[in-house]
Amino acid sequence: MMAELGLAALWLAAALAILQLVTGIWSMRAPELVAITGAVRPVTILQAVFAALSFTVLLYLFAVTDLSVELVAANSHTAKPLLYKITGAWGNHEGSMLLWVTVMALSGALIAGVEYRLPERTMQAVLACQGFVAAGFYAFLLFSSNPFARLPQPLAEGNGLNPLLQDVGLALHPPTLYIGYVGLSVAFSFAVGALVTRQVTPDFARAMRPWVLGAWVFLTLGITAGSYWAYYELGWGGWWFWDPVENASLMPWLAATALLHSVSVLAARDALRTWTLMLGVLAFSMSMLGTFLVRSGILTSVHAFAVDPQRGTFILILLAIYIGGALLLFALRAGAVAEGERFSVASRESALVVNNVLLTAILGIVLLGTLYPLLAEAFGERVSVGPPYFNLVGAIFALPMLAVLAIGPLLRWRRDSLQRISRPLIVLAAVGGAALVLTAVLFGVGFLPLAGLVLAAVLAVASVMPLSGRNLRRVPLAVWGMVAAHLGVAAALFGMASESAFTSERLVALAPGQATQVGPWQVRFAAVQPVAGPNWTALEARLEARIGTGAPVVLTPQARSFWAPAQQTTEAALATSWNGQLYAVMGGAADDGRWQIRLWWKPFVTFIWYGGGLIALGGALSLAGRVADDLKRRRVRARGARRRAQMVPA
Amino acid sequence: MNRLWLYLPLAVFFLLLGFAAYQLSQPKDEFVRSAMIGQPLPNFTLPAAMPGGQGVSASDFADGQPRLLNFWASWCLPCVAEAPHLDTLRDEGATIIGIAIRDRPEDIARFIGQHGNPYAAIASDDISAVQLALGSSGLPETFVIDGRGVVRYQHIGDVRAEHVPVLLAELRKAAR
Amino acid sequence: MTRLAPKHQRLILAAVALLALTGAGLGGAYALRSQASYFYLPAQMLADPPASDRSVRLGGMVEAGSIQKQADGVTIAFTVTDQHGARVPVRYAGIVPDLFVENSGVVAEGRLLPGGVFEADNLLAKHDENYVPRELQDMHKEQGGAALVTGGPQT
């Protein structure tokens, strides 16, 4: 019965999404019909209630392992721990698409519930657009990916879950990423709404900003967590593979980062109106494109997902309608949006424009590299595009962008001059010079890592400069947020450059009792023993690592065999210290009783993820600051209104 | 003219869309065909999957009678779907040898209890060794082996109603 | 710094943006020509060997009996072949994928050394259900051609 309940809720939610579209458009046409205009928000909220109900039912079916439901039987197993049973609900195509629309419906409900700053007409257009997009994805679920389909007869046992996906980090990673992906639909709908009503004002930007920030924070967290997952789970020692699935999450992030900054320019200075709308459309378009790339299987990836050309075609049509429609609307209407304020070449706005253009260029590069195999194949070529391309071309644009990022926050809005900030610039140049001498002379590293290390040092100092000379207690939260996020960029950059410059690697075959050296670590292979988990067995190596005569750290990498479905994975073992990570992977046995052991010493690699976390924290601080300001402003306005009401007797 | 650049993103998007659509329209063969067709079976001996059952070895196939060799598992979902069609094949006179991959005797017994037993013998291959040796990369797969123990035909995926006559014809061809 | 007339300012902004994006596009396209790694079958690699500084992929079958473990315990040597009988020797140091076996498909990433030995940095085994490289699917289609003759109707 439960599965049918879930399906019924899904149908109802789909119907309400269409109703939301209809009432939204109708109330724009006939603002005098109170019955209709008053219905838009409640319908939006009700749609979210049914979507959430449907998703909850799916979670329940997975929790109790209802093997009469095809999706559960295909992706779960009674022997699985409860946590992974539940997270299995979104570890598959149908479930993750249901999560997608649920997040979409909930974010729509959130706007309908709390967003009162937009002009009512724009708001109606926004909600209509949300309903329209959601309706397409409901149709996709109901007609080609029904998560509640029953089997003709229940199975005795489920088909397991990809053991690679049995991991806490990964279990929580997709929902985080999806909140980010789909949260950008709000920015998309805002942009579409503004294009429809042609009202692009600083107030509009201030209303849009928290939504962009919120989605961006989750996206940042999701990408950071995903990168760490790939790092320790795939056992290849790398933290970013430029895999299509990873690029699919990076592209919306790049667009959202650009949007975040351009929306700030629009809010503060009423400039960059059309550009902001373009980015609003672009960011969510990249989310949908990412979904298409991952779900259609037109690009192969190390991250396994169900591949189905029919579903690919369905999503392609949705893309054509939504992205194509929004871009067409943009082409027709953007010319009619009045021009914004002007600013001089040396100004905060200019720096942000440069940052935006470079971010978009990087986005273009990643998009091109991701789709290039597809384009080449149409001409009969077989290629794969990997790190050599992305690292090189990405860096060409990332390095100047990071340099501008160091200087931009020091500049004033509207007009400024480089002479005014010459003192801080000299300090930054000195820091950069010192870092250059230090790294080049002491270590002699390659050009890109060198540039990264120097820029990281400059950026770290530059990012706290906006605080200098200010009373720290009076610095607004939003500024703290900016400082934290920029410091996070510096930290992440430092981690990346350090990892690429200083990593040492050792691949050896060892017999128990033998030892080897990697970086400063002396690693002894003590023993190998069999171990068993709930649904796997493994061979586990016991490695004792120490620096000099220090206390030994024990690492236990495993080669695991799962039995449902039958699959083998390697479990890397990590030892984290303040200055880096020791990374160990166990391979197969050589013929003579030796075992393959692969070791990496990666100095300061953890800074990559600390940096990612700091960037997200910055976003969260900034969001908190903006929301607090907004609430305060609303209270003041309400008090003013009450006072006026008392003064003028009705 | 100066409004024309506003159409640029739209144009780029539809260009990409065209490529993607073209790519989707290309037929894609996801299946990995075995290189063993026309070759004799690799030598193997597998134990019976259930106590009291009969094991299977490569030499069993060289008695002049063509057989179907079916790789399956109780944990494999499509195997449930193909079970009734295997029954039909048996009723039509085909001899089916089953090899259960990475399975447990109690699960196999339960599966057979629920879905019937079309097999003349079921052996168990706990490490997929024979499956890999035959060039099969997924479950279920069904091979036609002729009376000299030569692999003649590979069917990838579950056997559906429309495949039953195809497999029977292959068996007849192998008997010649 | 002077303030520009609005018309000019907008034009300059658009020009800068267009320039950067075109630069990105052209730079990207150029880099793709030199950095994208092309896929070779053994016969193609013998007929038209790639330069030794180019990262490429080699796909084919692991020849039966060709896998040899070296004395260091971590390096293996094997031969990749195709149905035309072309053979390319491969050397690989690292942890071998679980399902890397003789007579089955493999994609090796790496470069062709001047001596004609392919040095692989990474191996992708066909049986790894998580990763059936697209390129390999085609190769098997070619091989499937032989199977079709005896195989009758296909699904």
What does this structure look like?
The complex is a heterotrimer of chains A (650), B (176) and C (155). With 650 residues, chain A is α+β, with helices and mostly antiparallel strands. Helix content of chain A is 63%, strand content 12%. Chain A contains 18 helices and eleven strands. In chain A, β7 (558-563) and β8 (566-571) form a beta hairpin. Chain A is globular and about 90 Å long. Chain B has a single domain (45-175), classed as Glutaredoxin, CATH 3.40.30.10. Chain B is 35% helix and 18% strand. In chain B, the strands form two sheets. Chain B has a five-stranded mixed β-sheet. In chain B, strands 1-2 form a two-stranded antiparallel ribbon. Helix content of chain C is 35%, strand content 28%. Chain C has a five-stranded mixed β-barrel. Chains in contact: A-B, A-C, B-C.
**Percentage of residues in strands of chain C:** 25-35%
Which geometry of chain B do the CA atoms define?
elongated
Q: Please give the number of β-strands of chain C.
A: 7
Biggest pleated-sheet summary of chain B: 5 strands, mixed
CATH architecture of chain B: 3-Layer(aba) Sandwich
> If you average the pLDDT of chain C, what whole number results?
71
Structural class of chain B: alpha/beta
Report the radius of gyration of chain B as a whole number of Å.
Answer: 22 Å
- The backbone outline of chain C, from C-alpha atoms, is elongated
Please report the first level of CATH classification, the CATH class of the largest domain in chain C.
Answer: Mainly Beta
State the order of secondary-structure elements of chain B, H for helix, E for strand: HEEEHEHEHEEH
Low-confidence stretches of chain B: none
Helix content estimate of chain B: 25-40%
Record field, number of beta strands of chain B: 7
Q: How widely separated are the two ends of chain B? A: 75 Å
Biggest interface: A-C, 55 and 45 residues
